[in-house]
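Problem 12. The chain below contains 209 residues. Write out its predicted structure in token notation.
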Amino acid sequence: CDDSVFIRRASIDLIGQLPEKSELEAFLKDDRPDKRTRLIDRLLVRKEFVELWVMYWAEQLQIRSDEGKLSYKSALLYYTWLKDKIASGTPMNELAKELLTATGGTFGNPPTNYYQNEQDTLLIAEDTAQVFMGIRLQCAQCHNHPFDRWTMDDYYGFAAFFSRVGRKGTDDPREKIIFDQGEGEVTHPVGGGNVVPRLLGAEEPDMQS
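Solution.
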């Protein structure tokens, strides 16, 4: 695309707004071969970049106070943690790893709120697949997906990972401790057997390592 289209698209995608007239004119006059890279680098350090992407990820992670799930303090700590991660340029794979492997108190280690915010094992599996892998598993809960590769075996195998998430209270009723129970079961509705954890589209992992 030409330069005028590029700066508009890059600005909307990264900071959620069109470039100022002066920014557009300066970019079009710039004849350096790496000016597009320079533009992206400038946009990535703008406060609007952090604001836009914190808003996006807070919505994806459904960060909001709900006394039945997240206290106001937990939600605020969770949001602040997310904002700090995005502002510091934490890669998305590292951010996802911190969320999915988080243990400890929902006050002391805010990413643990991922497992406090949603406590239903099957819904956690569905949310995780959709948010981090772009995969909609919901149809495979009760039948093999009619338009995709995912089967009921895939669905319950993936969900089995999250059956091992444990929760317990603390002295403060607003805080919970999230921990790995080391065991847990998901029952397959067809046949009623317990399902072994299995990664989507991959082999059964070694759960002992």
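Discussion. Strands lie at 104-105, 165-169, 176-180. Students who got a different answer should revisit the alignment rule from Section 12.3.
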